Amino acid sequence: MRSMKRPVKSDPAPSRWAWRRQRLMLTPTFRFALRAGIPVVLTLAVAGWYLSDADSRAAIRATVVDARNSIAQRPEFMVNLMAIDGSDSALSQTIRDAIPFDFPRSSFDFHPADVRALILELPSVKNASVRIRPGGVLQVDIVRRVPVAIWRTADGLSLVDAEGATISNLTRRGLRPDLPVIAGEGASAHLSEALQLVDASASLGDRLRGVVRMGERRWDVVLDRNQRILLPTDGAVQALERAIMLETTRDVLSRDIARVDLRLEQRPTVRMNATATEEWRRIRQLNLEKR
Description:
Elements: H1 16-25, H2 28-51, H3 54-72, E1 78-79, E2 81-85, H4 89-98, E3 105-106, H5 112-120, E4 125-133, E5 137-144, E6 149-153, E7 156-160, E8 166-170, E9 181-183, H6 191-200, E10 208-214, E11 218-223, E12 228-230, H7 236-250, E13 257-261, E14 269-272, H8 274-290
Parallel strand pairs: 2-5, 6-9, 9-10, 12-13
Antiparallel strand pairs: 1-3, 4-5, 6-7, 7-8, 10-11, 11-12, 13-14
């Protein structure tokens, strides 16, 4: 009797490589790389290959430029004119000359902030706002610098505003007789005090010629007939008011004097001019001879 061989049962367990593949497919990172990583890499590879050609890059640039121009030149994006408020005709023309482009122009080709920066570089402009109004109008609103004094320097005359900023040059004093004159190194930096001195000198009328900054620390008030009132470093306005009081009560400034020195509060001094000094000496000599 022949012996019967029992059939060998196959092992249902996967092979080692099949098991590793199944485990890898169960990894979230690997599955994400299959779904997204490989397509992205292939896309970048194709795009890099396409962009490596100069003609392809030029074609893309031309397409982008054409698309931009077709949008930028649409009527709703065009700026046709510029309106300026808050300035006179001369300043308006200066502003138009300072802006380096003509209208009509697409709003894509400039920025209002850049236009504002150009306008603020003008010495006559204190502040400005720039915006594009509906209807294609570039609206410019100007705050002008208002001159409050004439600053005399070695380079000539110039108009300054209340902040001491130079507005423009002045060819001669007679063009602005309504403004006071200041002079001296650093005078524009202390303009507010100079204007207070001018206001305090209002009772002197046309006799006031200006105020001069001396040594960058104090003021002299200059009158006609080459008279000067020398003021202290501190309390200059109060010292000037005392000098004006002396003029009101004793006609000090109406006399033949050259200087009223108020730098020392406790010891004000008066200096006569040369003619008055000689006359005083002559009279004194006559009195001595009579004795």
